Automatic annotation (TrEMBL):
It comes from the Bacteria. It comes from Actinomyces ruminicola. GO terms for cellular component: cytoplasm. One of its GO terms (molecular function) is glutathione transferase activity. Keywords: Transferase. This is Putative glutathione S-transferase. Residues 29-119 form the GST N-terminal domain.
Length: 288
């Protein structure tokens, strides 16, 4: 992470306060998209406004946009033109700067740059500001399952996909890509079993570390039951990144479409069609 200490919305740390923070995000970044989805689903769009990044600037980092939506100074962030300028005054900052970044507008400092922590905190600590009827993305009675899925998805899919598409080491990239495809086999098999579909890739359960039992027994239509949770969000944005461009950069040529995994594809399309799961900015960035 770019800052030495990514803060949390806990007692003695960051206070929950509408309008105090600003999210810097890009619709083309899967780590940003997980936070953007939670922000919409929970009704926090007014409480936490967004500054958008659309591309890389002359410094090689994400460039900010002005009120007209074009690259330029962002008045909400002290007229900074680059994400690097936003991070520059933050204690403990080490380049490169990343998104998503949550900025405390009272200090101008980046206070959170861990998207997983921010997703969880928005779903839990920010509950007093949730819209009426907002989903419970981390229900207490499913916490063992969400914790297990979050850890497994992070290791076997999220980080592995990033390595497969960005590593300069060919062997490392190829091993990571293979790991993602086998992990998709695992998820497809578990979803198929839970939804009475034919489980056609069960062999994957013997060649990779499967999720802990607390995760496996929770699978229904979604990873942790009959309703989507934060774990589904974490998987969704990486499957989305894979399907809409990322698989073309896998070693050895373009990897298969998610239609290769019928149960995983059905899960993905069901979420993709739900209100709030794909915003206007993400659609534009992904070419949808």
């Amino acid at each position: 992470m770019a800052i030495a200490h990514s803060h949390r919305f806990t007692e003695g740390d960051l206070p929950v306060e509408a309008g105090r923070y600003r999210l810097v995000a890009s619709g083309s970044c899967p780590w940003s998209r997980r936070v953007l989805i939670a922000r919409r689903l929970l009704g926090l769009t007014e409480a936490i406004p967004v500054s958008w990044c659309y591309g890389r600037g002359v410094d090689g980092f994400w460039e900010l946009t002005g009120p007209d939506g074009e690259p330029g100074p962002d008045p909400a962030l002290g007229n900074a033109t680059s994400i690097a300028e936003v991070y520059a005054g933050t204690p403990g900052y080490t380049p490169p700067p990343t998104v998503p970044a949550l900025v405390d507008t009272t200090t101008g400092h980046v206070v959170v740059d861990d998207s997983g922590d921010l997703l969880f905190d928005l779903a839990t600590a920010w509950k007093p500001l949730h819209r009426a009827g907002a989903p419970d993305l981390y229900p207490l009675d499913r916490r063992n399952s969400t914790d297990a899925w979050d850890k497994w998805i992070g290791e076997h899919i999220n980080q592995a996909h990033a390595t497969a598409t960005h590593s300069k080491n060919a062997e490392e990239a190829a091993a990571a890509a293979d790991g993602v495809l086998v992990a998709f086999d695992v998820v497809d098999t578990l979803l198929a079993r839970a939804t009475k579909m034919e489980a056609s890739r069960e062999a994957a359960l013997t060649v990779q570390d499967v999720p802990p039992l607390s995760a496996v027994v929770s699978v229904e239509q979604f990873l942790c039951g009959a309703a989507p949770t934060g774990s589904d969000i974490r998987l969704f944005t990486t499957v989305q990144a894979y399907e809409y461009g990322g698989r073309a950069y896998y070693p050895g040529g373009e990897a298969p479409s998610i239609s290769f995994w019928p149960a995983l594809a059905r899960w993905f399309r069901a979420l993709e069609g739900r209100v709030g799961w794909v915003g206007t900015e993400e659609r534009s960035a992904l070419g949808l």
